[in-house]
Design a protein that fits this description.
heterodimer; A: 191 residues; mainly alpha; Four Helix Bundle (Hemerythrin (Met), subunit A); disordered N terminus; B: 628 residues; Cytochrome C Oxidase, Chain A; 2 domains; two-stranded antiparallel sheet; 19 helices; 4 strands
Chain lengths: 191, 628
């Protein structure tokens, strides 16, 4: 991190953003592993999960898309140097993210009550829990990154650091938003 | 949180300035170090310790294979109930081969090899102060360390370590009651692997980011040494394939611990029918080998890069076919993702699909052969300096040829039906990825030891180490081909139960003795390594007279690598014995204006002004040549 006294340290966000992109790639591949398991499984067994997915998943998807929009507005507010507005939008994003997490739990209990438990002799049904569960872990990580940017708005950060924090949050949050839409559509299409 | 630095900027920034004066404590220098050179050494020494452990395990099961009827009371005294009466138990034999494979493939040849040399050489050879994220780099080592500790801790539990083979195929691995090793030992194996993958990903992401974003001025992609190309493509392979292993491992954890049926169906255990229905163990094999096959290239490609560099330096010749070397690495990288099915020819795979996997597998022979011929052509008529590093690099070429040829046999679906799961496979992969990769790693250790520790390793001990290891490795693995051709299956505990296998017992005795002698030869290496860290001959800045950037950094190994500005790069790294030059090596930092007598027209890459200057210089200094 730090070098000898004569070599002072200059902040360079580019490689760090690149790291986030590569993380996005590897995470995508992990979910790709699960969805390809699902495809091969349902092709060889001739069956998918065979459920009508609970409506709550639809509401949670809407909430998550909305949170992406509010995060985008936060980024735009920062770019036009309106820190207060950025802070407000970040708080709203955080709230929507937590609402999404709550709705996912709600969806699981709806699934469970309809008789589609996680411990199931149809692996396709268990897979719904796996992918949505690991997606939720990503949401929690994303919330931490958003909080990090939020804390930044209360400190006197240099512009480049504030932009960096916001951009890292944006890359990751939009990624998990798109990831969820992919998973949801995948599960809808492969019932 | 900060990375590149250019001196004399930002003196006004108090926050950053305060960080500049920081005092290194023992903890921050040697333990939680964020300096890539120290992290490289941490990976190397941990890797060496793990390699010694895994080698010890292999000696234990070799003893069992050679003398299945004899008792060795000493074994009982330190293995306890796993070797009651001085004979290793069958369950423990399976644990030994499982953990030997796991440690060697993942902990030694992935983390020990990439972790050491990518960390050491990427910043030094591309001209960067450190990795893109030194913090992530430190985390990568400590995740690896935790993975090692958890893996080894399974030797200290009642039921023993995992024993379903390093590929942990379900249902054996998924049903805790199946064998003792599938109880807690398997759980520890899975936890350890998740940490390991996390470590690999943190490392790999850092390597790719550093190479793409933090090269010094003038270091375009086609001026990078082949080591960097190899580490770069290896890291990409890891990023694209390790997450799939995590996906598979997560499902296995749920099957084992929570009762899902991803891989399980129709299992009867004794008289009890398991409730799990509808899963398929074949799907584990698909997920596992989607990582598992790229994994063997994750193991061999850094070793190839290291050898390319060392062979060129010590032949005092440019590497033959630099571009072909890079394109063949890229070819191997891409092809490695579409060949995993060749591990599964006998799982009931559709023969047409098997045919596709067979063709893609055989195509990999092309880039592999390109690399082999290029190494041989580099050696051809070179002024070879047989340093220990050079011998090990040539050893890699030898093992890669003799092990690679049998890959063509195994890649054929029709032949594989006979040869799969026999000792032929064991012989094949121990030569082509085991021995070849470990020789590449040892070559790297001998070659870059002065860069790591500022001292040289002893040459004579290095020669002893090389020759004994080289000869014994062939004595160990070559005879195994014939066992395999005769149909002797792998993983069997003793050869005494089957009539046709008994004639191979004497061969097993030879193999075991060779393995023991090879293991003893490693003592020469270990002594040489640890002694030279403290007492070795002090090295000069550029002991091998090499061109690459790491040898322009001071021997003292300062934090940030170069005092003052990072050097600029002007040429490719392989200008050895260039015609017209007075010296037989021209470093990457030497501008063409200082080597007027040896410049070639293609050196200028179409820069007309430079070509014009060169022409004028030639007209004055080489009148005879221009007249022709």
């Amino acid at each position: 991190m730090e070098f000898t006294a004569e070599q002072n340290v200059k902040f360079d966000a580019k490689p760090k953003k690149f790291i986030m992109w590569l993380f996005v790639v590897s995470s995508t591949i992990m979910f790709g592993g699960w969805t390809s398991y699902y495809i091969v499984f349902s092709a060889s067994k001739g069956k998918g999960h065979g459920l009508v997915l609970p409506d709550v998943f639809m509401y949670s998807s809407v909430v998550l898309v909305a949170s992406s929009i509010t995060l985008f507005l936060a980024t735009r507010a920062l770019k036009s140097n309106k820190i207060n507005m950025q802070r407000t939008w970040l708080w709203i994003t955080l709230g929507l993210g937590l609402a999404f997490a709550y709705l996912q739990f709600d969806a699981w209990s709806a699934l469970y009550q309809s008789g589609a438990a996680m411990i199931n002799n149809n692996a396709a049904i268990s897979m719904i829990y796996i992918v949505s569960g690991f997606h939720l872990l990503h949401i929690f990580a994303g919330l931490c990154i958003i909080v990090n940017s939020l804390i930044g708005t209360y400190k006197a950060l240099s512009t480049e650091k504030a932009v960096y924090r916001q951009e890292i949050a944006a890359i990751f949050w939009h990624f998990i938003d798109i990831l969820w839409i992919y998973l949801y559509v995948f599960l809808l299409l492969n019932s | 949180m900060s990375t590149i630095s250019v001196h004399d900027t930002h003196h006004d920034n108090h926050d950053d300035h305060a960080h500049g004066h920081h005092h290194e404590t023992f903890l921050s220098k040697y333990v939680f170090s964020m300096d890539h050179k120290m992290i490289a050494k941490q990976f190397l020494i941990t890797g060496i310790i793990m390699a010694v452990i895994a080698m010890g395990l292999s000696i234990l099961f070799r003893i069992q294979l050679a003398w299945p009827d004899k008792t060795f009371p000493i074994l009982e005294s330190f293995l306890g109930h796993w070797a009651e009466g001085g004979r290793i138990k069958p369950d423990f034999y399976l644990s030994l081969v499982t953990i030997h494979g796991t440690i060697m493939v993942f902990f030694v040849l992935t983390a020990g090899l990439s972790g050491t040399f990518s960390n050491l050489l990427i910043p030094l050879q591309v001209g960067a102060r450190d990795m893109a994220s030194p913090f992530l780099n430190m985390l990568s080592y400590w995740f690896f360390f935790m993975a090692c500790v958890i893996m080894m801790s399974s030797f200290f539990i009642q039921t023993g370590p995992a024993s379903a083979g390093w590929t942990v195929y379900p249902p054996l691995s998924a049903v805790p009651k199946a064998i003792p090793g599938s109880e807690l030992g398997m759980t520890l194996w899975l936890i350890s692997m998740v940490l390991f993958v996390a470590s690999s990903l943190m490392g790999g992401i850092n390597y790719v980011t550093t190479i793409l974003n933090m090269r010094t001025k003038g270091m375009d992609l086609w001026k990078m040494p082949l080591t960097i190309w190899a580490f770069f493509l290896t890291a990409i392979l890891g990023i694209l394939s390790f997450p799939v292993l995590v996906a598979g491992v997560v499902l296995l954890v749920f099957d084992r611990s929570f009762g899902t049926s991803f891989y399980l169906s129709d299992i009867v255990l004794g008289t009890q029918i398991l409730p799990n229905q509808g899963g398929s163990p074949i799907l584990w094999q698909h997920l596992f080998w989607f990582l598992g096959h790229p994994e063997v290239y994750i193991v061999i490609m850094p070793a190839m890069g290291i050898s390319s560099e060392i062979i060129s330096v010590n032949s005092r010749k440019p590497i033959f076919g630099y571009h072909a070397m890079v394109y063949s690495l890229i070819g191997i990288t891409i092809l490695s993702f579409i060949v995993w099915g060749h591990h599964m020819f006998v799982t009931g795979m559709n023969p047409w699909l098997g045919g596709v996997f067979m063709i893609t597998t055989l195509i990999i022979a092309v880039p592999s052969a390109v690399k082999t011929f290029n190494w041989l052509a580099t050696l051809w008529r070179g002024n070879i300096r047989f340093t220990p590093a050079m011998l090990f690099a040539i050893g890699l070429v030898s093992f890669f040829i003799s092990g690679g040829l049998t890959g063509i046999w195994l890649g054929n679906a029709a032949l594989d039906i006979n040869l799969h799961d026999t000792y032929f496979v064991v012989a094949h992969f121990h030569l082509v990825m085991g021995s070849a990769a470990i020789f590449g790693m040892l070559a790297g250790v001998y070659h870059w030891f002065p860069r790591m520790f500022g001292r040289l390793m002893d040459k004579k001990l290095g020669y002893l180490h090389f020759w004994v290891t080289f000869i014994c490795a062939y004595l160990v693995f070559f005879p195994l081909h014939f066992l395999g051709l005769d149909g002797v299956p792998r993983r069997y505990y003793a050869f005494t139960e089957f009539e046709f296998m008994q004639k191979w017992l004497t061969v097993n005795v030879l193999v075991t003795w060779a393995a023991i002698i090879a293991a003893l030869a490693q003592v020469a290496f270990l002594f040489n390594f640890f002694y030279s860290i403290f007492r070795g001959k002090v090295s000069t800045q550029n002991p091998w007279e090499a061109n690459t950037l790491e040898w322009t950094a001071p021997v003292e190994r300062i934090h940030g690598n170069w005092p003052g500005e990072i050097p600029t790069v002007y040429r490719w790294p392989y200008d050895y014995s260039k015609p017209g030059s007075d010296v037989d090596f021209i470093q990457q930092t030497t501008p063409f204006s200082e080597t007027m007598s040896s410049n070639m027209p293609h050196d200028f890459e179409g820069n007309e002004e430079a070509e014009e200057i060169q022409k004028q210089w030639d007209a004055v200094n080489k009148p005879s040549q221009t007249a022709e």
